[in-house]
Amino acid sequence: MPVQHSIIGLPRSGKTTFLAALWHLLNAGEISTKLTLDRLVGDSEHLNAIADSWRRCEEVPRTSIADEAYVSIHVRVPATGDKASLVFPDLSGESFERQLGTRRCLASYVEGFEGPGGILLFVTADRPSDGITLLDLGPDLNGSEGASESAPAHEWTPEMIPQQVGLVELLQFLQQAPFEVRRRKVALIISAWDIVADSALMPDGWLRREMPLLYQFLETNPGDFAWRAYGVSAQGGDLRTPVREALLRKTPSERITCIGPSAEPHDLTTPILWLMAAEE
What we know:
This protein is of the alpha/beta class. The chain has a single domain, classed as Rossmann fold. The chain is built from ten helices and eight strands. An eight-stranded mixed β-sheet has the order 2-3-4-1-5-6-7-8, with helices on both faces. Helix 1 (15-28) crosses helix 2, helix 6 (163-173) runs parallel beside helix 8 (212-219) and helix 7 (203-210) crosses helix 8. The protein is globular, with a radius of gyration of 19 Å.
């Protein structure tokens, strides 16, 4: 029975684009990958549609709650025959936001985290700084000249939660019942890595600088989580710019970038292989 690995990510964090690129990579055979496709359980029509959009360098359609589908991609390690399944039981980031707001989730979501499998945790580099700081609030707190006028109050919604705060909360849910409480491996995927200007910066360094709360949570809970960070550009660049024409001329699989421990330049299966590996 293949080990099941699950996915966590808020809206617009790159989950669907990653899935589209991974499905193409496993089917096309354009480059050598550490894992190969064993079989698919679920909606191949959905996978083929998003992979077609990805190949044409079009924005991959985001999945809404109404369009959610169960998808399980079974992969194997050719050298050893080891198998694993990457499960997308809930591709909609809005569902994770709903979980944060209501403190409820489906029984099938809880079942997905049973057993020895790990987690692909998605964040994105393509968004403004996460939240505001005391420096931003300083003028209002001090009542100094130039302080902004009081803004009208708005009802709180889960969308207002900063990305790293929400992800820490989703991970904390896994540390208590009804989830199976155990140590889990987390492959943290930083999507839109192509926009990171500092080419010398490694993914774990980016996380420490840009999302210190999430970084510190993972670092200070080694009994609950073993983690690695990977920088991934599944599309290869910003499709809203002239770079799209250059991407269209490339072999599709070679548009992919994957940076991180033991990563091959274009191989999105590297983080999954690490999740499959025994604890060191």
